[in-house]
Structure formats: structure tokens, C-alpha cells
């Protein structure tokens, strides 16, 4: 009996110790969770609500109807009441957004899309004080804008932090005006960095699961020190916990230029580029698919003047590695026009260095060429499954060529190596494995020699007036 009691006592003691450990661990975990109270109180006073008013003019359809108006005609009454029936009178459209103060004298950062096209921009400070705002400058390419209000010189401010130092998994706080609910505070973590979402040419977004909703645009994304490491910009409408912010490392430089009244000037190489894939890297003799492949070095532009050629792979800019085309665009854009950039180039199985004096980028996109009309005449068929023939004088201009050159693809066998690759009838093959080609015999010779050794060929094509590279693995 005594032995049984001693056994029960030991079990009780062990359970008590175990329970104590569990409570201790739970208490420790709870103690490690951050408190956002002080951060929200301190930063919130520098966050503002932005209200815009935009005049929507009468629809252009009304102008079309005007040409059919006939005084005294049978439909005169209908046309006279067109505005009433179809509500075509100019009207006011209002929208909401967020922003934050960066200087005591009233400079405010927000998104360009928050104030784009606005006739009036009003800013509400914490405490319901309203001010008319002036648009100092905007940069649509990065969706950033800078406003100014006259509210004295002692306003609360936020300062930019270094978004390059933020790590995935770190806590962040978003403050803004979602759905008109002013100064809402949400918390989460950095989910990813360097996100490309198709918003513009310089996509490099921070992704966060801190709740961001319509009205948060232009508000700050803060680290735990209360520094702005991002400007909340976009959401995935169909998802939850997926928001995007412009990193402060990009925004700070743009805002500084806008504040001084400078025009945003970005470096320009004058090249058409595309990403590499594993087959392209293999065909070009590269160890991996990093870099930006030059599909076209535009004649007369900075890159071509410096000696960059179609088929070169840009591996680095000023010694900084280039992973893909987006990174190349950002690195070049961050260098001012007329300054020099040293490019690390891969050409003919060797590394070279080329110094380029950059031009200035025109933000307007180049127009896409129209699809040329193709003749259905069949040509000689290659082992890759391509039917090809030489380009005629009459076809050259329609195909976007300066002169008759290359091989026109007229047909592709579906059960062939080419049939599994991204080449289409109407493409003109200008080069194979970086060698100009003008006959099917020459094409086949390169395929059997270099192609057989590497197991893949790389083609420089002309498609709809644009140069691009495609690969064809030799194995079916």
C-alpha cells in the first residue's frame, strides 16, 4: 500500500512539473509576440486620408448622336432629351486613398493612381482637419505621387527605412483608410520580395499578408521600428492576405526627385531583351539561365553605338549580377542618362566588358507591328520538321526586314522537334546558333554539327517586326 502511494505521489509530481513546463512555454511564446500599440499611436498621426474629386465629362457617344440631330426632324424630341434619358451630363466622381507626411512643412507621399485625373485633392489629418493639396509631381511608371499642403511647419512625419534589409517573415504594420475607415491599423508579415505583378516596367513589389483593402493605396507599410519600408499599392481582388507595396529602396529616390521638381529621368540602353531558359543557356554555352538575352540592339541607340550586338547576353551592370530582364531594366533605369554603365557580356563562349553611355528612356511603349501576310508556298523541309525557303525581295518589307535575308518558315510538322517548340509559320530565321543563315543547306549543316554536340539549337527569329530568340531541342 505504501509503495502504491509513493508511486501515485511520483506520478502527481511528474504531472505537476509537466503542466508547469507547458504553462511556462505558453507564457514564453506569448511574451515573444510583438505589441503594435506604441507603433500605431506614434505613426498614426503622420498618416492622412486623401479624398479626390474628378469631373466625368459627357460620354463621346453623345457627340456621335449629335451628327444625326436634325432640327424639326421626327426625332428632335428624342435627341433634345438624350441627356435626361441616358444621364450624359458631366458628373462628379469621388474616391478615397491614403498617404503619409514625410516633412514637417507638409509634403505627402501617395500613389499616382489615387490622384490621377483629379480636379480636386483634399487631405484629412488625424483629428479631422481638412486641407486642399497641390500635386507636386507624379511618376506613373512606379505609381508614386507627391502632394503638398499648407498646414504650418510642425507636422508629424514618418521616415523611410531600408527595404533591402527587411526579411521574409518579419512583422510589418499597414495604416490607411480602407473603405473610408480612417486610420485603420493591420499587422502581418513580409510574405515575399521582388514580386512582379505586371503593374509596370519596374515591378519589384514587397508582398505582405497585412490586411490591405481599397482605400489603403498610398498608405505606409511600416517595420517594427516605425520606418516606412513600403507604400501600399495593390491587392489581389480574388484573394485574401495578398497585398503589394512599392519598396522604399525604389520609392525614396523617386520621391526625392519629385520634391525638387526634377523630371524623372531614367537610363536607356536601346535594346530588345528576353529571358533565357535552360535550353537557350545550353545552346549559348552558359552554366545557368541567368542574364538578359539581347534580341535586338537598335541601330543608333546607346548599346549598339558601344558595340553591344544581337545575341549578346548581359550578365551584370557595373559589377552587379543580372538575374533576368526585369532586373536589367531596374538597374539601367536607376542610372541617370549620360552616365556610363559597364556591362558584363557573354558573347561567343567568352565574357567581355562594354562601357555604354546611357541615353534617356521614353516612357511611352513602342507600338507593336502588324502581322505580315504570308504566302502558303512550301519550301525545303529540315530534319527538325521545319519547311523553309528564302525570303523574296517583295516579302522583305512586309516581314519587317531591311533586305531579303534569312529563311521563311512556311510549315511545321506537328510530330517533330520544331512542332514542340515556340516557332510558328511566318517566322523568319535570321540566325542559328548565332550564325547568319540564308539557305536550308547551311541551316542543316549547323544542326548536324553544333546542334548535335549541344543537343539543342538557338534561333534568332523575326516575328511581326520584332526580334526574338527561341530554342529547339534536337531530342523529340
TrEMBL record:
<feature type="binding site">
    <location>
        <begin position="233"/>
        <end position="237"/>
    </location>
    <ligand>
        <name>substrate</name>
    </ligand>
</feature>
<keyword id="KW-0732">Signal</keyword>
<dbReference type="InterPro" id="IPR011782">
    <property type="entry name" value="Pept_S1C_Do"/>
</dbReference>
<feature type="active site" description="Charge relay system">
    <location>
        <position position="217"/>
    </location>
</feature>
<dbReference type="GO" id="GO:0042597">
    <property type="term" value="C:periplasmic space"/>
</dbReference>
<keyword id="KW-0645">Protease</keyword>
<feature type="binding site">
    <location>
        <begin position="215"/>
        <end position="217"/>
    </location>
    <ligand>
        <name>substrate</name>
    </ligand>
</feature>
<feature type="binding site">
    <location>
        <position position="113"/>
    </location>
    <ligand>
        <name>substrate</name>
    </ligand>
</feature>
<dbReference type="InterPro" id="IPR001940">
    <property type="entry name" value="Peptidase_S1C"/>
</dbReference>
<comment type="similarity">
    <text>Belongs to the peptidase S1C family.</text>
</comment>
<dbReference type="GO" id="GO:0006508">
    <property type="term" value="P:proteolysis"/>
</dbReference>
<dbReference type="InterPro" id="IPR009003">
    <property type="entry name" value="Peptidase_S1_PA"/>
</dbReference>
<dbReference type="Pfam" id="PF00595">
    <property type="entry name" value="PDZ"/>
</dbReference>
<feature type="active site" description="Charge relay system">
    <location>
        <position position="143"/>
    </location>
</feature>
<keyword id="KW-0574">Periplasm</keyword>
<dbReference type="GO" id="GO:0004252">
    <property type="term" value="F:serine-type endopeptidase activity"/>
</dbReference>
<feature type="domain" description="PDZ">
    <location>
        <begin position="373"/>
        <end position="464"/>
    </location>
</feature>
<dbReference type="Pfam" id="PF13180">
    <property type="entry name" value="PDZ_2"/>
</dbReference>
<feature type="domain" description="PDZ">
    <location>
        <begin position="258"/>
        <end position="324"/>
    </location>
</feature>
<feature type="binding site">
    <location>
        <position position="143"/>
    </location>
    <ligand>
        <name>substrate</name>
    </ligand>
</feature>
<dbReference type="InterPro" id="IPR036034">
    <property type="entry name" value="PDZ_sf"/>
</dbReference>
<keyword id="KW-0346">Stress response</keyword>
<protein>
    <recommendedName>
        <fullName>Probable periplasmic serine endoprotease DegP-like</fullName>
        <ecNumber>3.4.21.107</ecNumber>
    </recommendedName>
</protein>
<dbReference type="Pfam" id="PF13365">
    <property type="entry name" value="Trypsin_2"/>
</dbReference>
<feature type="signal peptide">
    <location>
        <begin position="1"/>
        <end position="31"/>
    </location>
</feature>
<dbReference type="InterPro" id="IPR001478">
    <property type="entry name" value="PDZ"/>
</dbReference>
<keyword id="KW-0720">Serine protease</keyword>
<keyword id="KW-0677">Repeat</keyword>
<keyword id="KW-0378">Hydrolase</keyword>
<feature type="active site" description="Charge relay system">
    <location>
        <position position="113"/>
    </location>
</feature>
Amino acid at each position: 500500500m505504501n509503495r502504491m502511494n509513493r508511486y501515485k505521489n511520483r506520478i502527481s509530481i511528474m504531472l505537476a512539473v509537466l503542466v508547469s513546463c507547458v504553462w511556462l512555454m505558453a507564457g514564453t511564446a506569448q511574451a515573444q509576440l510583438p505589441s503594435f500599440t506604441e507603433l500605431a499611436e506614434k505613426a498614426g498621426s503622420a498618416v492622412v486620408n486623401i479624398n479626390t474629386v474628378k469631373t466625368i465629362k459627357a460620354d463621346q457617344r453623345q457627340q456621335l448622336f449629335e451628327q444625326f440631330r436634325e432640327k424639326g426632324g421626327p426625332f428632335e424630341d428624342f435627341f433634345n432629351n438624350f441627356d435626361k434619358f441616358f444621364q450624359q451630363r458631366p458628373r462628379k466622381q469621388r474616391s478615397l486613398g491614403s498617404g503619409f507626411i514625410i516633412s514637417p512643412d507638409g509634403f505627402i507621399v501617395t500613389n499616382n493612381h489615387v490622384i490621377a485625373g483629379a480636379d480636386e485633392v483634399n487631405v484629412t489629418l488625424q483629428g479631422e482637419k481638412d486641407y486642399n493639396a497641390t500635386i507636386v509631381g507624379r511618376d506613373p511608371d512606379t505609381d508614386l505621387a507627391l502632394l503638398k499642403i499648407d498646414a504650418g511647419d510642425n507636422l508629424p512625419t514618418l521616415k523611410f527605412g531600408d527595404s533591402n534589409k527587411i526579411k521574409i517573415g518579419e512583422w510589418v504594420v499597414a495604416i490607411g483608410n480602407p473603405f473610408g475607415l480612417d486610420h485603420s491599423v493591420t499587422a502581418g508579415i513580409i510574405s515575399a520580395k521582388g514580386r512582379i505583378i505586371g503593374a509596370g516596367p519596374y515591378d519589384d513589389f514587397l508582398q505582405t499578408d497585412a490586411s490591405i483593402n481599397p482605400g489603403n493605396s498610398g498608405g505606409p507599410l511600416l517595420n517594427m521600428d516605425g520606418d516606412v519600408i513600403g507604400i501600399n499599392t495593390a491587392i489581389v481582388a480574388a484573394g485574401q492576405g495578398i497585398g503589394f507595396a512599392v519598396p522604399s529602396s525604389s520609392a525614396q529616390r523617386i520621391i526625392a526627385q519629385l520634391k525638387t521638381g526634377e523630371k524623372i529621368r531614367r537610363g536607356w540602353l536601346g535594346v530588345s531583351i528576353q529571358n533565357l531558359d535552360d535550353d537557350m543557356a545550353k545552346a549559348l554555352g552558359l552554366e545557368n539561365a541567368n542574364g538578359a538575352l539581347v534580341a535586338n540592339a537598335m541601330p543608333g541607340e546607346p548599346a549598339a553605338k558601344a558595340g553591344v550586338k544581337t545575341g549578346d547576353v548581359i550578365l551584370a551592370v557595373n559589377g552587379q549580377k543580372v538575374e533576368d530582364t526585369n532586373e536589367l531594366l531596374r538597374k539601367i533605369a536607376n542610372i541617370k542618362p549620360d552616365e556610363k554603365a559597364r556591362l558584363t557580356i557573354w558573347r561567343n563562349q567568352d565574357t567581355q566588358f562594354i562601357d555604354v553611355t546611357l541615353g534617356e528612356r521614353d516612357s511611352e511603349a513602342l507600338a507593336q507591328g502588324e502581322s505580315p501576310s504570308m504566302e502558303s508556298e512550301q519550301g525545303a523541309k529540315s530534319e527538325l520538321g521545319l519547311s523553309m525557303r528564302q525570303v523574296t525581295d517583295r516579302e522583305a518589307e512586309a516581314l519587317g526586314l531591311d533586305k531579303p535575308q534569312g529563311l521563311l518558315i512556311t510549315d511545321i510538322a506537328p510530330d517533330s522537334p520544331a512542332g514542340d517548340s515556340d516557332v510558328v509559320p511566318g517566322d523568319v530565321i535570321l540566325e542559328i546558333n548565332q550564325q547568319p543563315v540564308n539557305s536550308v543547306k547551311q541551316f542543316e549543316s549547323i544542326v548536324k554539327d553544333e546542334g548535335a554536340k549541344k543537343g539543342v539549337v538557338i534561333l534568332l527569329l523575326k516575328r511581326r517586326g520584332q526580334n526574338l530568340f527561341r530554342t529547339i531541342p534536337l531530342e523529340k
